[in-house]
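Sharing a chain and its predicted structure for anyone who wants a worked example. Both blocks are below, sequence first, C-alpha cells second.
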Amino acid sequence: MIGQTLSLYISMKFVKILLAMVVGLGFLIITVDFIEQLRKSADDTQITIGSLYMISMLRAPVFIEKAFPFACLFAAMITLTQLNTKMELVVARSAGVSAWQFLLPISLSAALIGVFIATAYNPLAIKAFEQSVELEAEVRNQQKGEQNQKVHGYWIRQEEEEGSTVINSRLARRGGTLLDDVKIIRFNKQGGIVERIGATNAIYRGDYWMLVSVKLTTDDGLITKHDTMKLPTRLTRDALLGASTPPESVSFWKLRNTAEKVSKTGTNAKPYMVQYHSLTALPLFLVAMVLVAATVCLRFVRFGQFGRMILGGILSGFVLYTITKLVTALGSNGVVPPAVAAWSPAFVATLFGMSILLHQEDG
C-alpha cells in the first residue's frame, strides 16, 4: 500500500503544477480579452485602459472554468512525466507500488478540486462576470453623443393588444430587467411599422418598461425626444430571465431553481439542467482526465516516445471536448435526458482510461 508521505508528495506536486497552469492560462485569457476590448473601444477616447483591463480580469474566471478539464489533463501529464524522468515512479514500482496506487493521490486531488470548482469557484466566477457586465455598462454609458446605431446582441419580442414590439439592446443585465442602448420597433396587427424608439436604458417595472433618454420616430418621420417614456409589456420576470440569461451565467446553487422558473414560462429549461448535472459530474470528469493522461504518459516512459505523448494528450482532449459538446447539445434539445447527457462523457472517459491502463499494466 502506498504510504501517506508519498501520497501527499504526489498530490502536492500535481496541485502545484495545476495552479501554475491555471495562472498562466488566466494571464493568457486576460491578455487576449484585453486586446479585444481595446479594439472595440478604439473610438471611445473617454474609456480608460484601467477600466478595460479590470473588465478583462473580471471576465477571465468564467473562461478559466471552461478550460479547467484540459488544464487538469496536461497537469497530470506533466506530473507523471516529471516523476518518471526523475525515476521516482520507477523506484515506487520496484517497491511494489502499482500504477493504480500512485494514480490514486492525483485522482483524489482532481476530484476534490472538481467539487471546489462546482460549489465555490463557479458562483464566484459568475459573480465576477456579472460585475464585469455592470462595469462595462457603466463605462460605455459615460460616452456622450448620439445613440449607437449598430445592431446589438440581445433581442426579445413581446405581444401587445395593438400589435407587437421587438426590443434590441447591447447589454441585458440583472436577469434581463435592465437593458442598455435600446432599439425598439413597434408593429401594428397588420405587420406595419408604427414607430421606432431609441433609448439609453430600459428598466422593467412589472407591467411596463421605463425608457430613459428617449428618441421617438413615428412612421411619418416625425422625431421627438423625451426624458422618460413608458412602454407597456406582458412579459414576466421569469420570461426575461430565460431569454437573457444562458445556463453558463447561472450559479451552481441557482440552476435548479432557475430551470423551474424558466420551465413555467414555456421556455426550454433543459440546458439549465444539463449545466447543473455537468457541474455535478465535474469531479468524475477530472478523474477521467487523470486516467487518460496516465495512459499516454506510461507509454512514453516505456518507449521514450515523447512526441507521441504530447500528440496523444492533445488528441484525447480534443476528442473528449467534441464528444462532450455533442452529447450536451443533445441533452439541451431533449434528445437524451439531461443527466445522461452530462454524466455519460465522464463515465465513458473513465472507462476508456481504465481499460487502456489495464491493458498496459496487466496485458
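Comments welcome. Residues 99-140 form the longest helix (42 residues).
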